[in-house]
Amino acid sequence: MAVKTLWTIDHACGHTTEADLADRSADRRAGYARWLSARDCMDCWRASRGEDAESKAEWLAKKRTAEQAEADKWSEQYRMPPLEGTDRAIAWGARCRHRLVSAAYTALVLEGTTSEAEWEAIEDAARPLTRAGWWIDQRDADPADLPELLDAATESDRPNENPHF
Fold it and tell me: Residue spans with biased composition (Basic and acidic residues) (predicted)?
């Protein structure tokens, strides 16, 4: 006997739907049906997202504005040069650089064994990296890996006063 593909789902919102689970392997259908039953139906989910989307967008805009102000203040305080890239990339890259370098200081100096003098060398290595995309690419990196990441950065991530054409 074949495992059924059409499942009746009693959703958490109280609605009941039919779900075609033929695209899932037979041994995963029951578990997925159980997972679906713990969630609102698609109509209720969409309705809740529609009402909430504006407030989420507003909250996110305020959060980004605050993060950007903090990153700009930090960049000025620690003499970090402006980043290069599109306007959107520059703003995002500045926030990523601020988060990564601040977290690296905590991991390496405050919680680790890196001295202040060694940290200054790390900061000096970070300054020439002005390509916003490089900082965005590192946004999920382990902060303790910052020195190795800085060593791995290529010349295209650093400006050159005498570019070769």
Answer: 155-165
